[in-house]
Amino acid sequence: MSVAKFVAANGREAMRKVREAMGPDAVVLSNRTVEGGVEIVAMRDADLGAVSATAIQYVDPTPVVAQPSASLLATAPQDGAELGDLRGELASMRAMLERQFAGLSGGAPGVSGVSGVSAGDPLRESLFEWLVNAGFSGQLSRTLLSKLPVGYDRPAAMGWIRQELARKVPVLSDEDTLFAQGGVLALIGPTGVGKTTTTAKLAARFVLRHGPEQLALLTTDSFRIGAHEQLRIYGDILGVPVHAVKDAADLRFALNAMKDKHLVIIDTVGMSQRDRSLSDQIAMLAGVQAPLQRVLVLNGASHGDTLNEVVHAYRHDTAPNAGAGLDGCIISKLDEATHLGSVLDVVIRHRLPVFYASTGQRVPEHLELAQGAALVERAFLTPRRGSLFADADAARRQAAAAVDEARAPAAPQGGADDMLRSLTDSANAVGVCVEELNAAQYGFELARSLWQQRAVGGPALRQAAQQVRLTMCRDAARACERYVLAVTGTTTLPTQGRRAPQLLQQTLWLADRDGMPLATTLVPSSRTRQSLAEAEAEAEAATVRATLAAARTVVNLHASLPTTTTLARWQQTGERWVAGMRKTTRVIANGVANKLDTIADTLTFHAIGEQQWRDRDAVQWLGHCMVRVPEGQVRTAARVRTDGSEAGIEACLVVSRLVDRATGEMLATEYMLCDAALAGDAARVARWSRWADAAEEQFRTLRHAVEHFAQEAGRGGDAADGSASDASTYGHLVSIQLGLTTLRLQHTPSPTAPAFLSRLAGRALARVNAPVQGSVLNEGMGRLLALLDVLENYPGRSMAATGAPASEPAPQSTALAATQFARSMDAESADAMQMASMGE
């Protein structure tokens, strides 16, 4: 057996030596960069069988584990041992061949001198382009790659780079420390970066934690029309005073008048980094006597050179003797950035701590505490369709690659390597995701089955609806103890043929044990001039209610008290109810009409458990008593019948109080009225009411699912009877089932499916196991369905070539198909790389 080592100045020259010495069928065993060039270890193809044969007979002279007995060795299948050894060899060789394949496709002349990365190291070259395309500078990219440990393949190297970048991005470790310091916090930066909106977001975050009494807002922006008015509106909403100042004297006077405030946030006038009057603004802030923190707002969508110039101007170039340093920065407009790596490169270069990241206009939701790992992940996940303004070095390499592709279109390209490897990894991840969704009770199998059948005309609409109801009853029997909960709200959906969106009444059915979503129905709110489809939707909703009511007692959860007529009807049908109430509502207790908060002061409360309330540990206390709901609109006194009995509907008042566990401070009070039959379930009533409050977000998720899936899900659904109306109804049925799958996944997340669906949707998670928005899961679910359609049809390619009929894949074969696809991609990738490395 001949194994030889070849060293040359670059990969191409080394491979030429291999072919000259061992022929075109030589097998490359290793490929690495050494001092003086590239080293390749290769062997003849004829000797490969000898390697496997000798590997089976090899015995370690110093074993570290117990050896199997002779009887076991005698009965063990030798074919399996050979296959295991062969797989191990192929797995190690595959990584080597990948590097060789990348080296053959990236050896354009002159690249080494351009990038500063050795042309003989294709892995570092591809990583360099990956970093530059994300927005990082060539200087930082080369520095990182120079420290890359030896022996890493591409996935491991990318993971190491992400960790290094996340470690280098300085961030604010604790928001409480920032607010506890108090004093003056000045937001500075160029025009149009979002300082005023960021000021409002910071103020809102402070108010949520500490209240409005200890905060004041100042603005020095007298140039932009409406700047003061915009900030004043935010101040009115938050209950925070807002003042405008023009110069240093005004600023000193205003701050002196606000000595009692713990924190003053200043929204400064925006100035270009090249404006000569910028030094005057810096000097004005330097005259502040109170503790001052200067926070620079950086536009994440700006070019890296512009950002670098801005930081230099505000930190170094202006008023060098006026203490014009920067305490930190806030990155804005992340939702608009296409190359987020540029701003991360700048903060790393200047060691500028990142306090927050702004992802939109909403106050205060779109301001997040900065996390290095999340920012780095977002930089690489931001979708890009190519750049017209790329780094010059990367542009030269792209041009050289385009010339090579035009000259040799049939030659294997470096992108094929990435594509095959990406498909392999994605197929494995798809298989795991589908297994998780099928293993748990998410309803994914039913939704997937209905989605598949749409393409072949779909089942009859009634048959599909019956299938959904059957599954719903089975889920209710499993998840519900005594009751099934109904939360009702309104929503709007765009309707074809109508100018205005249609107003719909939506009912979400929940399990009483844990609040898991069971089903949902959509019916028109208006009962006039109903179309046939609308009438069928209302009939289907009534059927769903009757079906669930036959299995469990229905409890209707409302945000306010329904009419006495509705309460009376529920009383007659045996349905229960719970309604959220205001503290000023009057009910009859002990023959006297009083407000709910007055009655609450007379109740005895009992602690029932602990829960989180706005990041604070709280203890929940409950009190309840029997009352009567007055008939009609009685608010001032109770009606009394002639026989002396009280009028109205008997009910139970439940009062929930949240008390800070550490300080005893009253945090929140909630008032509920419920059916008298639920008087013994006060703790459940409080828990159900909390679920009803969260239903608004669930309604939005379902609405997004209908808008996102309905059109595609309805295609082909009318083939069964030729009715376009049935196609639309079928599309709504499928989209609702997919929306329910999303809600259940949010309710009980699986280990990896939410993160994988988020990646499919092109979104980065802020942290590990962070909750994922329903709209993101819906988008990821749509892309998952598209991937499954491709993966499940992949095995049929060979049948089509031979003329054999391809059978329709069963839903339960999805994970298997994904695994098979991954294995086939592994094989095809290895074959392609082997041929390329041999020069064929």
UniProtKB/TrEMBL annotation:
Q: Which SUPFAM superfamilies does its entry note?
A: P-loop containing nucleoside triphosphate hydrolases
Membrane topology term: Peripheral membrane protein
| AAA+ ATPase domain ranges (all copies) | 181-344
Query: Would the keyword NAD turn up in this protein's UniProt record?
Result: no
User: Major place of localization?
Assistant: membrane
What GO CC terms are in its UniProt record? plasma membrane
Gene3D superfamilies linked to this entry: P-loop containing nucleotide triphosphate hydrolases
What InterPro entries does its record include? Answer: AAA+_ATPase, FlhF, FlhF__GTPase_dom, P-loop_NTPase, SRP54_GTPase_dom
What is its subcellular localisation?
Answer: Cell membrane
Q: Name one Pfam family in it.
A: SRP54
In its UniProt record, which GO terms are filed under biological process? bacterial-type flagellum organization; protein transport; SRP-dependent cotranslational protein targeting to membrane
Q: Which superkingdom heads the taxonomic lineage of this protein's source? A: Bacteria
Which GO molecular function annotation, any one, does this entry have?
GTPase activity
Domain SRP54-type proteins GTP-binding: start-end pairs:
182-381
Q: Which key words tag this protein in UniProt?
A: Bacterial flagellum biogenesis, Bacterial flagellum protein export, Cell membrane, Cell projection, Cilium, Flagellum, GTP-binding, Membrane, Nucleotide-binding, Protein transport, Transport
Q: Which family does it belong to?
A: Belongs to the GTP-binding SRP family.
Function according to Swiss-Prot or TrEMBL: Necessary for flagellar biosynthesis. May be involved in translocation of the flagellum.
What name does UniProt use for this protein?
Flagellar biosynthesis protein FlhF
Organism of origin is: Cupriavidus pauculus
